[in-house]
């Protein structure tokens, strides 16, 4: 395998795809190296602590993406609340459908959060910020406590639909979920 020049960001993107499809434990350093066209030992130049450090950085990169591209929609002044909700839901659903393997944060929470507690803070931050962005939208119509409850219900429904989409290999489940959530608002 020829050694290629690759950036840390490119390694994280390729590793994200592997973790997204296979999960943390089913993804080996050899698979990551192959996907990046690097020798396994080359990873320690970029990630001294190995696979766990890579996963931390993948989760942080993904969280930053959601902050900038999805959660920030809740504060867009040019959209009304229903438009914000629709845009957030559809953008999130497009990402879930893209990989056909569900939410990276949901999968990681189920797979390793209890066995590797060092991942919990970034996982919790993702779900808290997702909830906050949805609550902010729902507060345009409902009292803050009820808006928070609706935000949690929305997250639960999307995570459940994501699981069913995978089990039945049917992306329409996510689209139906989106339509139901929008109808409720």
Summarize the model shown:
The chain has 185 residues and is mostly helical. It has helices at 8-22, 29-36, 43-46, 51-69, 81-99, 104-112, 120-138, 144-168, 172-184.
Your description of this structure?
The protein has 185 residues and is mostly helical. It has 2 domains: 1-58, Arc Repressor Mutant, subunit A (Orthogonal Bundle); 70-184, Tetracycline Repressor, domain 2 (Orthogonal Bundle), CATH 1.10.357. The chain has helices at residues 8-22, 29-36, 43-46, 51-69, 81-99, 104-112, 120-138, 144-168, 172-184. Helix 1 (8-22) packs across helix 2 and helix 5 (81-99) packs antiparallel against helix 9 (172-184). The protein is elongated and about 55 Å long. The chain starts with 7 loop residues before the first helix and ends with a helix. The mean pLDDT is 93.
How are the elements arranged and paired?
Layout: H1 8-22, H2 29-36, H3 43-46, H4 51-69, H5 81-99, H6 104-112, H7 120-138, H8 144-168, H9 172-184
Helix pairs in contact: 1-2, 1-4, 4-7, 5-9, 6-7, 7-8, 8-9
Query: What percent of residues adopt helix (DSSP H or I)?
Result: over 70%
Count of individual helical segments: 9
User: Count the strands?
Assistant: 0
CATH superfamily of the largest domain: Tetracycline Repressor, domain 2
Element pattern in H and E:
HHHHHHHHH
Count of spatially separate domains: 2
- Report the major sheet: none
List unreliable stretches of 5+ residues.
Answer: none
CATH class of the largest domain: Mainly Alpha
């Amino acid at each position: 395998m020829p050694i290629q020049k690759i950036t840390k960001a490119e390694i994280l993107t390729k590793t994200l795809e592997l973790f997204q499809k296979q999960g943390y434990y089913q993804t080996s350093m050899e698979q990551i190296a192959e996907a990046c066209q690097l020798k396994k030992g080359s990873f320690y130049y970029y990630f001294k602590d190995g696979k766990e450090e890579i996963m931390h950085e993948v989760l942080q990169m993904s969280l930053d993406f959601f902050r900038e591209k999805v959660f920030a929609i809740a504060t867009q002044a040019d959209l009304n609340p229903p438009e914000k909700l629709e845009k957030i839901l559809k953008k999130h659903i497009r990402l879930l459908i893209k990989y056909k393997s569900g939410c990276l944060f949901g999968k990681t929470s189920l797979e390793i959060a209890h066995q590797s507690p060092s991942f919990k803070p970034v996982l919790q931050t993702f779900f808290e910020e997702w909830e906050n962005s949805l609550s902010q939208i729902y507060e345009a119509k409902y009292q803050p406590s009820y808006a928070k409850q609706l935000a949690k219900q929305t997250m639960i429904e999307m995570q459940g639909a994501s699981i069913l989409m995978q089990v039945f290999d049917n992306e329409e489940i996510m689209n139906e979920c989106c339509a139901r959530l929008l109808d409720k608002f």
